Prior knowledge:
By secondary structure, this protein is an alpha/beta fold. The chain is built from ten helices and six strands, in the order H-H-H-H-H-E-H-E-H-E-E-H-E-H-E-H. It has a six-stranded parallel β-sheet with strand order 1-6-5-2-3-4, sandwiched between helices. Helix 5 crosses helix 6 (110-121), helix 8 runs parallel beside helix 9 (235-252) and helix 9 (235-252) packs parallel to helix 10. The longest helix has 20 residues, at 60-79.
Amino acid sequence: MDALRGDKSLWDGLVEITPEKASKGLVQAAHTPQHFKYVEHAFENGHDRLDMDTVISMQSFDASLFAAGGAVAAVDAVMQGEADNAFVAVRPPGHHATAENAMGFCIFNNVAVAARYAQNNYKEIDRVAILDWDVHHGNGTQGIFYDDPRVYFFSMHQYPWYPGTGARGETGFGRGLGTTMNVPVKANTDAGEQKRMFEGALEDISNKFAPDLIMISAGFDGHVSDPLGQLRLDDRDFASMTESVKQWADQACKGRVVSCLEGGYNLDTLGETVRSHVAELGR
Length: 283
């Protein structure tokens, strides 16, 4: 947020929205009632973490509801014409959270909650494409929509890496077969090659799936400087991928893009990377 506000010419053209907490019903469109209840009472029941990596405090439940609510508010802003597209600057991230469990810093799956909200509340939204370029595979998002033909999930991620899922052979199940695509990327792959992989995947997806809304799981831990990844992308690469997504959105779904912050753990560089991403969204 400091980086965004520090670019006055960019900031003056943005609309800042403070969300409300997502309701239980909205969260449970993507998660089981048991998971919601467990998170709601975890801290008061003496738990200091939800899994090995997901440490919590007494405020974590509220924070996770505001994060999911931010993604929902972004959908409303885009669908109601308040903004052309939206970036959701929230933590905790969401893409590892499965329908049943928190995982990998993620409590509720923000993009999944927002995708279900869009489908359930806007008659214009039937099909949603979720593009995940976090350095880690979005296993939670994939699992939630694995048998759903109305949601296309694409993940480009370092492989093998946490959480160990996301092989090319994972392509969906049942009616959702063929609406999941994984592009595993080896550590230290050249950034230009990774961008070509991303653009090739978008072309393949656009030839068989026409979304009414595109969502980005915008993890920036694929940045060359990030301590939790071993990929080589820089700010220009993320801006270029953003431009490619916008071009597809302009052709397919009236430019509707909602981007949600996922990973990104070098706090010296993350602000500028986010600023570059948001500036490209706003062009």
